[in-house]
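ingest -> validate -> predict -> emit
validate: passed (alphabet ok, no gaps, 340 aa)
predict: started
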Amino acid sequence: MIKTPKLHALLRLLASVLAIAWLGAWVGAQDKPASAKSTTMKGAKKIMLTHEYAEVNGVKLHYAKAGNGKKLILFVHGFPEFWYEYKNQLEEFGKTYTAVAPDMRGYNLSSKPAELEKYEVKYMIEDLRQLAEKLGHKKFILVAHDWGGAIAWAFAIAHPENLEKLVIINAPHPGVFQRELAHNPAQQKASQYMLMFRSAQAEQILSANNYGALVQAVLGEGLKKGFFTEADKEAYLAAWSQPGALTGGLNYYRAAKVGPPTPSGEMAQGTFGVGNSSLLVKVPTLVIWGEKDTALLTGNLEGLDKYVPQLTIKRIADGSHWVIHEQPALINQYIHEFIK
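emit:
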């Protein structure tokens, strides 16, 4: 077990739980294909969504953009999503902000480096910092979910001067997660699926039968209940089918190199990225948590205030790990109230 509280070492531990979060219930509402060049969003005020690219940190990032407000709000997706996760938020916050949701490196229409080490957290931190600068903003609001949350926590710890506020949706702080993984057997059990994600067979398993496993795990419940449409399904299939995209997403886990204890009692080891002696988040932070998350248990909220002095927590009792899709209006409300 890792004993030195270095930022990237803990984020490697955080990856073990995020690796299987998507296997829980997932519902949501999205409505356009991944490669659309522009979309007119429906609503009282029509918002034009544009698709653009930025060369940053040695990669080309695709991003969707809505609005042209004075302040930038950046939305960061997790696995196995892409910019499309935030369609509802782009529509809402594009009315008053410059709202941007990138495809992170390795995903959908963004660059997919061949080198595994290029998927270490330190690179994604710099991707986001340079993207904001390209958009003309040194300081911005950061909203993130799942793997995006892991990167956002790291960003806030490393670059508090660049953030006005931080919003995290069902993604644990690395210090708290270290404690949970070390002492909570249930959390350890929830991290077991990471081993498959890191395996050489992961792409074959997840892409078989036209991504049948992903369709069922990610979209199945939502399609049954009407939260997802067939158009949404086609958008996700298009994103997953981009050459190298599935490997890119899985490489986040492989680059982390830390997982749950193996049957032989060994813990995965690896070279850590740039260390950080403090895990203190010096940014006003809102954590929204769907309490029915079966992969990230509510114990991850206990003691969080020790790492995040300026902390607001909103618990959603009937929300799962995918609460951003289940209750987009409530998520938008909580974000609005926090950042106003």
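The domain at 7-339 is CATH 3.40.50.1820 (Rossmann fold).
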